[in-house]
Amino acid sequence: MNREITPDGLLAPTLLRAVLTAAASLWLGVSGLSSQEDDRRRAPGQDFRDMLEELQHQPSQDGVEWLARLIEIQEQLRPKSEYEKTNPGTLGEFRPVVERARQSTVRIIIEGRQAALGTIVSSNGYLLTKSSEIDVEFVECHLHDNRRVQARYVRQFDDWDLVLLKMEVEDVVSVEWADAIPLPLGTFAVAAGRGQDPVSVGVISVLARDLSDKGKGFLGIQMGPSEAGVVVTMVLPGSAADKGGLQKGDVILRVDGREVSTVDNLKTTISGFAPQEAVTIDYLRGDEAAQTEVVLGDRESGLESAQTGPDIQDLTSRMGGDVSRRRGGFPMALQHDLVLDPSDCGGPLVGLDGKVFGLNIARVGRVQSLAIPSEKVREVLQTVDLSRPIYANMDLNELAAGVEASRAAVDEARDALLKAREQNRELRNLLRRARSMQDAGSDREGAIEASGLRY
After folding, report:
1. Based on CB atoms within 10 Å of each CB, which residue in 143, 182, 191, 229 is the most buried?
2. CA atoms within 13 A on the CB side of 261
3. What span, in angstroms and rounded, lies between the C-alpha atoms of 277 and 93?
């Protein structure tokens, strides 16, 4: 069968729309969503049909977007099997497991919506949550007993994407940590929320490992030795090298002025830079010397993008919902297959004994989420004294930097105010002179008119 292919390897938009339309129409027929259905199921079915008809009139670039939306509606309409782990009946079976942990879980509310979950780590109101989802100093916390209290920013732990907050309460239930023992693959994992039922259930799918390689720069090439330097044997699509214009056969000579004569030398040099750092690369293309500037990526994202392509990667994520803004670079994390929303991160991950063996930190894919092992969370907490008041645990360097930044802002505002006052004074003087001159001109015109000497 002949297929119409675009330069990036995807089906052409016209063919893509045809395939989507046929598939969606077939689904409607199989699922029996006809116009004769009752109102209870008719609304979502009608919504599906309306979207299907509208799809055929959409610009070609919207095909992937519409496919994701159609799949979302299909998933909402599909009856849940009693054996599925997302079935409410299945989740209800795990209520006893999360009974203790849910009392140590809060909803973090920012501007009326849940931004994350939080895990209470002391009875006097300290809690941990996902830092990249919290961009304000004060948040509202909803506790399991329906109390609503304010919490204040205390300290940030950038490596782990964690932030410590302090609630205005002194009588809450602190989380019960599990013992620090190796957990085998397949261990049951339950994500606690504020309600009686867990947020999700599943198993550990990848043992705890270091993900901090994301802190090293990634160029995105395969390479080999060359007499002049290091030859590029392949360029990963969408990588830093690809965006910088490097091609197969180019011979890399220098990176930011540093000579690279061997493959290992180039690897070491590139990994010495951080993701998003710009570097210049001198290279030979044939007999011509050239230079380019590239913005380095990170290995995990670069390889993932190269394997799937940006459009399909985005679709794969959206088919199961959004992914976390920060989803890598952690010094240690285990992976599980629980279906979580990014706003469910920050909450406790519980074993069948009801004890917390991890803290959910990121959703990275449809059924891929990461959690920081409890022993690592406890190591972070050892750097603060949870028995002391909030100000005793604030980072003095961070506070000092904040004071300097605010002082600079005040100085800048003062300078701007002085300039504005000076400008206002000049404009008022100009206005006064203009009015005076115009009034004088009017008086002369009047005198000439009265004397009859105008012509």
Report:
1. 191
2. 1
3. 49
